[in-house]
Amino acid sequence: MKGSQVTVKGVEKYFGGFHALKNVSLGINKGEFYSLLGPSGCGKTTLLRIIAGFEDPSAGAVFLDDRDVIPIAANKRPVNTVFQTYALFPHLSVFENVAFPLRLKKLPNAAVKEKVGEFLELVKLPKEGGKLPSQLSGGQKQRVAIARALINEPSVLLLDEPLSALDAKLRQHMLIELDAIHDKIGITFIYVTHDQQEALSVSDRVAVMNEGEVVQVGTPSEIYESPSCPFVAHFIGETNYLGGEVAEVLDGKHARVDFPGIGALYVYQDKPLSVGDGVKVTVRPEKIRISSDKPEGQAGRMNVLEGTVDELIYSGFQSKFFVRVSASATFRIFRQHVKYFMDEKAINWKDKVYIWWNDNDGYVVEAEKNP
Asked: 129 phi and psi, to 5 degrees?
Protein backbone atom coordinates (compact mmCIF):
# COMPACT_ATOMS: atom_id res chain seq x y z
CA MET A 1 0.00 0.00 0.00
CA LYS A 2 1.36 3.42 -1.01
CA GLY A 3 1.21 6.66 0.95
CA SER A 4 1.71 7.27 4.63
CA GLN A 5 -0.32 6.42 7.69
CA VAL A 6 -1.48 9.64 9.34
CA THR A 7 -1.97 9.68 13.10
CA VAL A 8 -3.41 12.70 14.89
CA LYS A 9 -2.98 12.57 18.67
CA GLY A 10 -4.76 14.90 21.08
CA VAL A 11 -4.62 17.95 18.82
CA GLU A 12 -5.89 21.21 20.32
CA LYS A 13 -6.06 24.58 18.61
CA TYR A 14 -6.92 27.97 20.05
CA PHE A 15 -7.32 31.20 18.11
CA GLY A 16 -7.25 33.69 20.95
CA GLY A 17 -10.15 32.69 23.16
CA PHE A 18 -11.78 30.51 20.46
CA HIS A 19 -11.31 26.76 20.95
CA ALA A 20 -11.20 25.54 17.33
CA LEU A 21 -10.06 21.94 17.90
CA LYS A 22 -10.76 19.96 21.07
CA ASN A 23 -8.55 16.94 21.75
CA VAL A 24 -8.84 15.53 18.21
CA SER A 25 -7.36 12.07 17.64
CA LEU A 26 -7.57 10.13 14.37
CA GLY A 27 -5.86 7.21 12.68
CA ILE A 28 -5.83 7.29 8.86
CA ASN A 29 -4.54 4.21 7.05
CA LYS A 30 -2.03 4.12 4.21
CA GLY A 31 -3.71 4.56 0.84
CA GLU A 32 -7.08 5.40 2.41
CA PHE A 33 -9.52 7.92 0.95
CA TYR A 34 -10.51 9.61 4.21
CA SER A 35 -12.95 12.51 4.53
CA LEU A 36 -13.32 15.16 7.21
CA LEU A 37 -16.99 16.11 7.06
CA GLY A 38 -18.84 18.79 8.96
CA PRO A 39 -20.54 22.19 8.80
CA SER A 40 -18.68 25.45 8.30
CA GLY A 41 -16.64 26.40 11.36
CA CYS A 42 -16.42 22.88 12.78
CA GLY A 43 -12.60 22.78 12.59
CA LYS A 44 -12.04 20.46 9.62
CA THR A 45 -9.98 22.92 7.54
CA THR A 46 -7.97 23.93 10.61
CA LEU A 47 -7.11 20.26 11.17
CA LEU A 48 -6.11 19.89 7.52
CA ARG A 49 -3.88 22.98 7.75
CA ILE A 50 -2.18 21.53 10.84
CA ILE A 51 -1.47 18.27 8.97
CA ALA A 52 -0.12 20.32 6.04
CA GLY A 53 2.06 22.47 8.30
CA PHE A 54 0.33 25.78 7.59
CA GLU A 55 -0.83 26.01 11.24
CA ASP A 56 0.80 24.90 14.47
CA PRO A 57 -1.36 23.10 17.02
CA SER A 58 -1.72 24.53 20.52
CA ALA A 59 -1.16 20.98 21.79
CA GLY A 60 -0.89 17.47 20.43
CA ALA A 61 1.05 15.73 17.67
CA VAL A 62 0.72 14.65 14.04
CA PHE A 63 2.62 11.61 12.78
CA LEU A 64 3.28 10.52 9.21
CA ASP A 65 4.01 6.83 9.72
CA ASP A 66 6.19 6.95 12.86
CA ARG A 67 7.56 10.48 12.41
CA ASP A 68 6.21 13.49 14.29
CA VAL A 69 5.96 16.19 11.61
CA ILE A 70 4.98 19.15 13.82
CA PRO A 71 8.60 20.41 14.01
CA ILE A 72 8.98 20.03 10.20
CA ALA A 73 8.24 23.01 7.92
CA ALA A 74 5.33 22.70 5.50
CA ASN A 75 7.57 22.64 2.42
CA LYS A 76 9.64 19.79 3.90
CA ARG A 77 6.70 17.47 4.63
CA PRO A 78 5.82 14.74 2.07
CA VAL A 79 2.36 16.32 1.80
CA ASN A 80 0.74 18.42 -0.92
CA THR A 81 -2.52 20.38 -0.81
CA VAL A 82 -5.20 21.07 -3.42
CA PHE A 83 -7.03 24.28 -2.53
CA GLN A 84 -10.60 25.38 -3.20
CA THR A 85 -9.31 28.34 -5.23
CA TYR A 86 -6.97 26.20 -7.44
CA ALA A 87 -4.01 28.59 -6.74
CA LEU A 88 -2.71 28.30 -10.31
CA PHE A 89 -0.16 30.77 -11.70
CA PRO A 90 -2.19 32.83 -14.21
CA HIS A 91 0.85 33.83 -16.33
CA LEU A 92 2.12 30.25 -16.74
CA SER A 93 0.80 27.67 -19.18
CA VAL A 94 -0.90 24.52 -17.97
CA PHE A 95 2.32 22.63 -18.72
CA GLU A 96 4.44 25.03 -16.68
CA ASN A 97 1.94 25.10 -13.79
CA VAL A 98 2.21 21.33 -13.49
CA ALA A 99 5.97 21.44 -14.08
CA PHE A 100 6.58 24.07 -11.39
CA PRO A 101 7.50 21.66 -8.54
CA LEU A 102 9.91 19.85 -10.88
CA ARG A 103 11.50 23.13 -11.98
CA LEU A 104 12.22 23.91 -8.33
CA LYS A 105 14.09 20.59 -8.15
CA LYS A 106 16.04 21.59 -11.29
CA LEU A 107 15.17 18.38 -13.13
CA PRO A 108 16.42 18.11 -16.75
CA ASN A 109 13.96 19.34 -19.42
CA ALA A 110 13.54 15.85 -20.88
CA ALA A 111 12.56 14.42 -17.49
CA VAL A 112 10.17 17.34 -16.87
CA LYS A 113 8.51 16.87 -20.26
CA GLU A 114 8.02 13.15 -19.69
CA LYS A 115 6.70 13.54 -16.15
CA VAL A 116 4.31 16.41 -16.94
CA GLY A 117 2.97 14.49 -19.94
CA GLU A 118 2.31 11.50 -17.69
CA PHE A 119 0.35 13.54 -15.15
CA LEU A 120 -1.61 15.54 -17.73
CA GLU A 121 -2.62 12.17 -19.16
CA LEU A 122 -3.62 11.04 -15.66
CA VAL A 123 -6.02 14.00 -15.26
CA LYS A 124 -7.23 13.69 -18.88
CA LEU A 125 -5.74 16.97 -20.12
CA PRO A 126 -3.05 15.71 -22.51
CA LYS A 127 -3.81 18.35 -25.19
CA GLU A 128 -4.24 21.37 -22.90
CA GLY A 129 -0.61 21.91 -21.92
CA GLY A 130 -0.16 25.06 -24.01
CA LYS A 131 -3.19 26.88 -22.65
CA LEU A 132 -3.29 29.48 -19.90
CA PRO A 133 -5.50 28.86 -16.82
CA SER A 134 -7.87 31.62 -18.03
CA GLN A 135 -8.65 29.48 -21.08
CA LEU A 136 -9.82 26.52 -19.00
CA SER A 137 -13.14 25.61 -17.42
CA GLY A 138 -13.45 25.32 -13.65
CA GLY A 139 -13.23 21.54 -13.81
CA GLN A 140 -10.13 21.68 -15.99
CA LYS A 141 -8.46 24.14 -13.60
CA GLN A 142 -9.12 21.77 -10.74
CA ARG A 143 -7.54 18.90 -12.67
CA VAL A 144 -4.44 21.00 -13.30
CA ALA A 145 -4.21 21.77 -9.56
CA ILE A 146 -4.51 18.04 -8.78
CA ALA A 147 -1.82 17.14 -11.33
CA ARG A 148 0.54 19.77 -9.89
CA ALA A 149 -0.05 18.49 -6.36
CA LEU A 150 0.56 14.86 -7.36
CA ILE A 151 3.62 15.33 -9.59
CA ASN A 152 5.88 15.61 -6.54
CA GLU A 153 4.65 12.13 -5.56
CA PRO A 154 3.63 13.06 -1.99
CA SER A 155 2.78 10.43 0.59
CA VAL A 156 -0.42 12.29 1.46
CA LEU A 157 -2.67 14.49 -0.69
CA LEU A 158 -4.82 17.00 1.21
CA LEU A 159 -7.91 18.33 -0.55
CA ASP A 160 -9.62 21.37 0.98
CA GLU A 161 -13.18 21.69 -0.40
CA PRO A 162 -11.72 21.17 -3.91
CA LEU A 163 -15.05 20.97 -5.75
CA SER A 164 -17.10 23.63 -3.97
CA ALA A 165 -16.63 26.21 -6.75
CA LEU A 166 -18.07 23.88 -9.40
CA ASP A 167 -21.71 23.44 -10.40
CA ALA A 168 -23.60 20.35 -9.23
CA LYS A 169 -23.24 18.25 -12.39
CA LEU A 170 -19.54 19.03 -12.77
CA ARG A 171 -18.99 18.22 -9.08
CA GLN A 172 -20.45 14.76 -9.60
CA HIS A 173 -18.27 14.19 -12.66
CA MET A 174 -15.14 15.42 -10.86
CA LEU A 175 -15.89 13.17 -7.89
CA ILE A 176 -15.78 10.15 -10.17
CA GLU A 177 -12.55 11.42 -11.73
CA LEU A 178 -11.01 12.06 -8.32
CA ASP A 179 -11.90 8.57 -7.12
CA ALA A 180 -10.37 7.08 -10.29
CA ILE A 181 -7.17 9.10 -9.77
CA HIS A 182 -6.95 7.84 -6.18
CA ASP A 183 -7.33 4.26 -7.39
CA LYS A 184 -4.50 4.75 -9.90
CA ILE A 185 -2.09 6.63 -7.61
CA GLY A 186 -2.94 4.73 -4.43
CA ILE A 187 -1.61 7.28 -1.93
CA THR A 188 -3.43 8.57 1.16
CA PHE A 189 -6.12 11.17 0.36
CA ILE A 190 -7.58 13.39 3.12
CA TYR A 191 -10.61 15.21 1.79
CA VAL A 192 -12.33 18.14 3.55
CA THR A 193 -15.95 18.84 2.66
CA HIS A 194 -19.23 20.09 4.11
CA ASP A 195 -21.17 18.13 1.46
CA GLN A 196 -22.50 14.84 2.82
CA GLN A 197 -23.04 13.30 -0.62
CA GLU A 198 -19.45 14.00 -1.65
CA ALA A 199 -18.08 12.34 1.47
CA LEU A 200 -20.37 9.32 1.26
CA SER A 201 -19.69 8.84 -2.46
CA VAL A 202 -15.90 8.49 -2.46
CA SER A 203 -14.63 7.81 1.05
CA ASP A 204 -13.32 4.61 2.56
CA ARG A 205 -14.05 6.18 5.94
CA VAL A 206 -15.51 9.46 7.17
CA ALA A 207 -14.82 11.49 10.31
CA VAL A 208 -17.82 13.68 11.15
CA MET A 209 -16.84 16.84 13.02
CA ASN A 210 -18.88 19.36 14.98
CA GLU A 211 -17.73 22.32 17.07
CA GLY A 212 -14.09 21.26 17.04
CA GLU A 213 -14.68 17.63 17.95
CA VAL A 214 -14.84 14.34 16.04
CA VAL A 215 -18.26 12.93 16.89
CA GLN A 216 -18.16 9.75 14.77
CA VAL A 217 -15.76 7.83 12.53
CA GLY A 218 -16.91 5.03 10.25
CA THR A 219 -17.52 3.79 6.76
CA PRO A 220 -20.11 5.74 4.73
CA SER A 221 -22.73 3.06 5.39
CA GLU A 222 -22.00 3.04 9.14
CA ILE A 223 -22.26 6.82 9.33
CA TYR A 224 -25.55 6.87 7.43
CA GLU A 225 -27.24 3.75 8.79
CA SER A 226 -25.96 3.86 12.38
CA PRO A 227 -25.50 7.49 13.46
CA SER A 228 -23.87 7.74 16.87
CA CYS A 229 -25.72 10.86 18.01
CA PRO A 230 -28.54 13.22 17.03
CA PHE A 231 -26.14 15.60 15.27
CA VAL A 232 -24.93 12.90 12.85
CA ALA A 233 -28.48 11.68 12.24
CA HIS A 234 -29.58 15.20 11.27
CA PHE A 235 -26.45 16.23 9.39
CA ILE A 236 -26.10 13.14 7.19
CA GLY A 237 -29.01 13.10 4.75
CA GLU A 238 -32.63 13.54 5.74
CA THR A 239 -34.38 11.71 8.54
CA ASN A 240 -37.47 11.47 10.72
CA TYR A 241 -36.50 12.23 14.29
CA LEU A 242 -38.72 11.07 17.16
CA GLY A 243 -38.56 11.34 20.93
CA GLY A 244 -40.31 8.85 23.22
CA GLU A 245 -40.16 6.61 26.28
CA VAL A 246 -39.34 2.89 26.41
CA ALA A 247 -42.49 0.92 27.26
CA GLU A 248 -41.08 -2.61 26.86
CA VAL A 249 -37.72 -4.25 26.14
CA LEU A 250 -38.35 -7.21 23.87
CA ASP A 251 -35.62 -9.60 22.71
CA GLY A 252 -32.40 -7.77 23.54
CA LYS A 253 -32.30 -6.13 20.12
CA HIS A 254 -35.67 -4.41 19.97
CA ALA A 255 -37.91 -2.32 22.18
CA ARG A 256 -41.41 -0.92 22.11
CA VAL A 257 -41.42 2.85 22.57
CA ASP A 258 -44.33 5.20 23.27
CA PHE A 259 -44.13 8.37 21.18
CA PRO A 260 -46.39 11.33 22.09
CA GLY A 261 -48.95 11.99 19.38
CA ILE A 262 -48.06 8.79 17.54
CA GLY A 263 -48.43 5.81 19.85
CA ALA A 264 -46.31 2.70 20.36
CA LEU A 265 -43.65 1.79 17.75
CA TYR A 266 -41.01 -0.92 17.57
CA VAL A 267 -37.36 0.18 17.31
CA TYR A 268 -33.95 -1.43 17.01
CA GLN A 269 -31.70 -1.02 20.05
CA ASP A 270 -27.92 -1.26 20.01
CA LYS A 271 -27.77 0.49 23.38
CA PRO A 272 -28.81 -1.01 26.73
CA LEU A 273 -32.35 0.17 27.42
CA SER A 274 -34.73 -0.15 30.36
CA VAL A 275 -38.42 0.56 30.73
CA GLY A 276 -38.94 4.28 31.36
CA ASP A 277 -35.77 5.42 29.55
CA GLY A 278 -36.13 8.43 27.28
CA VAL A 279 -34.91 7.79 23.71
CA LYS A 280 -34.35 9.66 20.47
CA VAL A 281 -35.00 7.58 17.36
CA THR A 282 -34.19 8.18 13.69
CA VAL A 283 -36.04 6.61 10.74
CA ARG A 284 -34.69 7.33 7.26
CA PRO A 285 -37.37 8.43 4.75
CA GLU A 286 -36.43 5.81 2.16
CA LYS A 287 -36.99 3.02 4.72
CA ILE A 288 -40.69 3.92 4.99
CA ARG A 289 -43.22 2.56 2.49
CA ILE A 290 -46.42 4.33 1.56
CA SER A 291 -49.69 3.11 0.03
CA SER A 292 -53.33 3.99 -0.28
CA ASP A 293 -54.11 0.46 0.89
CA LYS A 294 -53.47 -0.94 4.34
CA PRO A 295 -50.54 -3.40 4.26
CA GLU A 296 -51.54 -6.98 4.86
CA GLY A 297 -49.50 -10.05 5.76
CA GLN A 298 -46.23 -8.23 6.48
CA ALA A 299 -43.57 -10.45 8.09
CA GLY A 300 -41.99 -9.53 11.42
CA ARG A 301 -42.77 -6.58 13.66
CA MET A 302 -43.97 -3.75 11.44
CA ASN A 303 -44.87 -0.21 12.41
CA VAL A 304 -48.04 0.82 10.58
CA LEU A 305 -49.53 4.31 10.79
CA GLU A 306 -52.42 6.01 9.03
CA GLY A 307 -52.16 9.62 7.92
CA THR A 308 -52.87 12.35 5.39
CA VAL A 309 -50.57 13.63 2.63
CA ASP A 310 -49.82 17.24 3.57
CA GLU A 311 -47.25 17.84 0.82
CA LEU A 312 -46.00 16.01 -2.26
CA ILE A 313 -42.81 16.89 -4.15
CA TYR A 314 -42.09 15.14 -7.47
CA SER A 315 -38.36 15.02 -8.33
CA GLY A 316 -38.28 12.77 -11.39
CA PHE A 317 -36.41 9.82 -9.92
CA GLN A 318 -38.47 9.92 -6.71
CA SER A 319 -41.40 11.52 -4.94
CA LYS A 320 -41.14 12.98 -1.45
CA PHE A 321 -44.25 12.76 0.72
CA PHE A 322 -44.97 14.63 3.94
CA VAL A 323 -47.59 12.58 5.79
CA ARG A 324 -49.30 13.96 8.90
CA VAL A 325 -50.22 11.18 11.33
CA SER A 326 -51.34 13.47 14.18
CA ALA A 327 -51.55 17.14 15.05
CA SER A 328 -47.95 17.02 16.30
CA ALA A 329 -46.28 14.44 14.05
CA THR A 330 -45.47 14.50 10.33
CA PHE A 331 -43.31 11.91 8.56
CA ARG A 332 -41.33 12.37 5.37
CA ILE A 333 -41.18 9.42 2.99
CA PHE A 334 -39.10 8.92 -0.17
CA ARG A 335 -40.62 6.74 -2.87
CA GLN A 336 -38.32 5.69 -5.70
CA HIS A 337 -39.83 5.52 -9.20
CA VAL A 338 -38.85 2.05 -10.29
CA LYS A 339 -41.37 2.16 -13.10
CA TYR A 340 -43.35 4.80 -14.93
CA PHE A 341 -45.58 6.42 -12.32
CA MET A 342 -48.66 6.25 -14.59
CA ASP A 343 -48.55 2.45 -14.15
CA GLU A 344 -48.88 2.85 -10.39
CA LYS A 345 -51.81 3.89 -8.25
CA ALA A 346 -51.20 7.60 -7.80
CA ILE A 347 -51.04 9.16 -4.33
CA ASN A 348 -52.12 12.79 -4.31
CA TRP A 349 -52.24 15.75 -1.96
CA LYS A 350 -54.72 15.29 0.92
CA ASP A 351 -55.10 11.55 0.26
CA LYS A 352 -55.53 9.21 3.20
CA VAL A 353 -52.58 6.81 3.23
CA TYR A 354 -50.82 4.13 5.24
CA ILE A 355 -47.10 4.24 5.99
CA TRP A 356 -45.08 1.37 7.41
CA TRP A 357 -41.52 0.25 8.16
CA ASN A 358 -39.66 -2.65 9.75
CA ASP A 359 -38.66 -2.59 13.43
CA ASN A 360 -34.96 -2.73 12.40
CA ASP A 361 -35.27 0.60 10.58
CA GLY A 362 -36.06 2.72 13.64
CA TYR A 363 -32.64 3.37 15.15
CA VAL A 364 -31.97 4.68 18.67
CA VAL A 365 -29.38 7.48 18.51
CA GLU A 366 -29.65 8.69 22.12
CA ALA A 367 -30.87 7.20 25.36
CA GLU A 368 -31.37 8.88 28.72
CA LYS A 369 -31.69 6.61 31.71
CA ASN A 370 -34.77 6.91 33.86
CA PRO A 371 -33.57 8.09 37.29
From this structure: -60, -30
